[in-house]
Design a protein that fits this description.
The chain contains 7 helices and 6 strands; from the N terminus they run H-H-E-H-H-E-E-E-H-E-E-H-H. It has helices spanning 3-37, 44-48, 67-77, 80-85, 111-117, 144-152, 155-165, and strands spanning 55-60, 88-93, 97-100, 107-108, 124-128, 134-138. It starts with a helix and ends with a helix. It has 166 residues and is α+β, with helices and mostly antiparallel strands. The relative contact order is 0.14. Strand 5 (124-128) and strand 6 (134-138) form a beta hairpin. It folds into 2 domains: 1-37; 39-165, Glutaredoxin. The chain is 51% helix and 17% strand.
Length: 166
């Protein structure tokens, strides 16, 4: 066996191992995120079912009557078509319950999930990408356009736009 064949075999083995390590790390990261921080009713089951299908925005608030929360909700509601075009679902989450925006059905949630992300006021808007990773966090009112800019810079979104144009 020549030195070049040995080198090529080494590279094949190394590359396969390297990519396996990357995949395993990715799986572990996603598992920790889904099991550790989203282990509540709106959690794993509710959020995970959207992976690779929809992006998710979590609006976390101490009360559905919170002024900043209502302002953020109103801002997003103005862009219903843009939300749909970007495959975005918006969950409104309080310590006791959650609902999917534009769907008035309330469901129970566990406070542990809410506590993970908040500081007891309207505190967070969290954007979760198609891959299940957190792409953006904000602890204040965020314009919908800024969220859309963040999404439109993502590789998967760029690919969606390219394939849609053909």
């Amino acid at each position: 066996m020549s030195i070049f064949k040995i080198r090529d075999e080494f590279y094949k083995i190394f590359n396969m191992t390297y990519y396996r390590i990357i995949v395993v790390k990715r799986i572990i990261t996603i598992s920790i995120f889904l099991c550790g921080t989203l282990s509540y009713n709106v959690s794993g089951q509710e959020i995970k079912k959207h992976q690779w299908k929809n992006r998710v925005i979590l609006l976390l608030t101490d009360s559905f009557e919170n002024k900043t929360f209502l302002q953020q909700k109103k801002e997003l509601a103005k862009y219903k078509d843009d939300l749909k075009a970007r495959k975005l679902l918006v969950y409104e989450v309080s310590p006791a319950q959650y609902t999917l925006m534009f769907n008035r059905k309330l469901c129970k949630t566990r406070p542990s999930f809410y506590d993970t992300y908040t500081n007891k006021t309207f505190s967070k808007i969290i954007l979760i990408g198609l891959d299940g990773d957190i792409k953006m966090k904000s602890s204040s009112f965020t314009k919908a356009i800024d969220i859309f800019k963040t999404i439109d810079q993502m590789p998967m979104r760029r690919n969606e736009l390219r394939t849609r144009d053909f």
